[in-house]
Design goal:
The protein is α/β, with parallel strands linked by helices and 393 residues long. It is built from nine helices and 14 strands. Strands 3-2-5-6-7 form a five-stranded parallel sheet, sandwiched between helices. The chain has a five-stranded mixed sheet with strand order 9-11-12-14-13. A two-stranded parallel sheet has the order 1-4. Strand 6, helix 4 and strand 7 form a beta-alpha-beta unit. The chain binds adenosine-5'-diphosphate. The site of adenosine-5'-diphosphate (ADP) has 21 residues, from helix 8 and helix 9.
Length: 393
């Protein structure tokens, strides 16, 4: 890569004129004006000098003995498109100067040269070259950052895929030996009666306790593995996105919980008509169902329960909320509850600590976010966003 003419104190200027006196006079004046002047009487030599640098500022006579200014322009523009070339021309070569402008010259200036006019022109050109240099640096940096980001994204995606794969294999493959253990221990439990006489009561009791422990352990492990398997399935064999009328979805979900709500006199509040969104139906159904189910299960024993569903519409996303006035969650647990198998608080309600982990994964797979605002004994509001994506008619 060519050496860049960096913004230094003294801007470099390549001066080309085959008349030695004119060249010397101009050089003196321009050096006195603060330029680092490199002067040449030959177009070829100037091109040779320029070819190792970029962002050159060139002031050239249009009529040169070896190459005319137009040729210098063409060659320099090819090797250094960021250069700024100013043509010095007399009236007789004015047409050439106009041609040069059409071919990308920065400007032309008529001889005899008005030095004030030239200085203004040069100053402007220097500023533009510097600006374009800075711009280029920014673009380079942006491209590098973009490339880094692409690499990181690809690595992340492949890591994610690997993790999903491992999760799936582990949970899938662990289940079959577990089912075997479960089967044999059940058989063993049945046998204890018939071997009672042979072993004697004490030993049989001990054997029964052991089998009981094995069965309890197997049941726990089965719950964990099924949970992992369910989590790993989200997004693996993802159903297709489609238009889904949330109003209908929520009405259907409400019908599923009708009995429980009536039984516990729970008021279900929905003030708005819900929109149609582009999403995976079963997964979003699971999100609303889990959140509503939790709001019912973690209701307060000391006040009438209310569950409210609503949403806000922003430019590019919907924000949904499921609000209850139940037992609430301590601030320190607001993040923990979204982790798999995490249960918090001292509620006697039975559960696996899986629902919110599934909900979080589904929302994230839909490019949304989920969080909770909650106070102990006052209730919880679960928020989640879903980006608005194109609805297909
Ligand atoms: P599970 O309900 O099976 O334990 P979840 O993942 O759905 O699993 O919830 C994790 C924990 O978050 C629950 O154990 C409970 O402590 C808390 N939690 C979830 N929803 C609510 C809610 N609406 N009100 C109070 N606590 C909640």
């Amino acid at each position: 890569m060519g050496e860049k003419t960096r913004p230094t104190e003294k801007p470099p200027l390549i001066l080309i004129d085959d008349e030695p006196d004119a060249l010397e006079t101009l050089q003196d004046i321009l050096e006195a004006s603060g330029y680092e002047v490199h002067s040449f009487q030959s177009g070829r030599q100037a091109i040779e000098f320029v070819s190792h640098r970029t962002g050159n500022l060139i002031l050239t006579d249009i009529l040169l003995q070896d190459l005319n200014g137009l040729k210098v322009l063409q060659v320099v523009r090819e090797i250094d498109p960021d250069s700024a070339i100013i043509m010095m021309t007399g009236n007789t070569s004015l047409q050439m100067a106009i041609d040069a402008m059409n071919q990308g010259a920065y400007a032309y200036i008529l001889k005899p040269i008005n030095m004030e006019e030239l200085k203004v022109l040069l100053k402007k050109a220097v500023r533009e070259i510097r600006l374009s240099f800075e711009n280029k640096k920014l673009v380079d940096r942006l491209q590098l950052t973009n490339r880094d980001m692409e690499v990181s994204n690809r690595r992340l995606e492949s890591l994610n895929r690997e993790m999903e794969e491992i999760l799936h294999i582990v949970s899938h493959d662990l289940r079959s030996p577990l089912i075997n253990i479960q089967g044999f221990s059940t058989k063993l439990a049945g046998l204890t009666g018939s071997v009672r006489q042979k072993l004697g009561d004490e030993l049989t009791k001990e054997a029964e306790t052991c089998v009981g422990f094995i069965q309890k352990g197997v049941k726990n492990m089965d719950t964990l593995i099924s949970g992992l398997l369910r989590l790993s399935r989200i997004g693996r064999k993802a159903e297709a996105h489609q238009n889904n009328d949330l109003e209908k979805m929520i009405t259907d979900i409400r019908a599923v919980f009708e009995f429980e709500m009536k039984e516990h006199s729970i008021q279900f509040i929905r003030k708005q008509k819900f929109p149609t969104i582009w999403c995976r139906r079963d997964e979003i159904n699971q999100v609303f169902s889990n959140l509503i189910s939790n709001a019912i299960r973690y209701r307060s024993p000391s006040r009438a329960s209310e569950i409210e569903l609503s949403f806000e519409e922003a430019h590019d996303a919907y924000k949904f909320l499921v609000k209850d006035n139940g037992i609430g969650i301590d601030k320190k647990d607001h993040e923990r509850i979204f982790k798999i198998f995490e249960r918090v608080g001292d509620s006697p309600v039975k559960g696996e600590g899986l629902g919110l982990a599934l909900v979080k994964k589904i929302i994230e797979q839909h490019d949304g976010k989920i969080w909770v605002e909650s106070f102990r004994d006052r209730g919880s509001t679960f928020y989640f966003t879903l980006p608005k994506q194109r609805l297909v008619s």
